[in-house]
Structure of YccF domain-containing protein:
Amino acid sequence: MKTLLNIIWLVFGGFWLALSYFLAGIVCCILIITIPWGIASFRIAGYALWPFGRTVVDKPGGTGIASTLGNVIWILVAGIWIVISHITTAVAMAVTIIGIPLAIANIKMIPISLMPLGKEIVPTSQPFVRSYH
């Protein structure tokens, strides 16, 4: 079922969403000082491409002051706008019965889109196990 939902997600918006996060990552890496957000954008792009069967957890050891400060800056600069776009897209997707799981996936992406630093994306079967790749 996860694979079917991921394919439907990919066709009806996941590809473009992942592409936008990927392009944002490239811009952030070009600007050098924003490289941490660029790396986070690349992580989110992979998640946006294939979200079903994965979840977001805090990195082991918690977030440090640098991640917290970085997230505050991110919220002010881009996070709010990304969240608004996810909510708008989720409302549009929820109009149909088939779109309801896609809308839920869009809402599920809000926490990592709002505060990407100090987070990790893991399989839903292992939400407390850190992946090392």
Helices lie at 2-30, 35-49, 65-93, 100-108, 110-114. Residues 2-30 form the longest helix (29 residues).
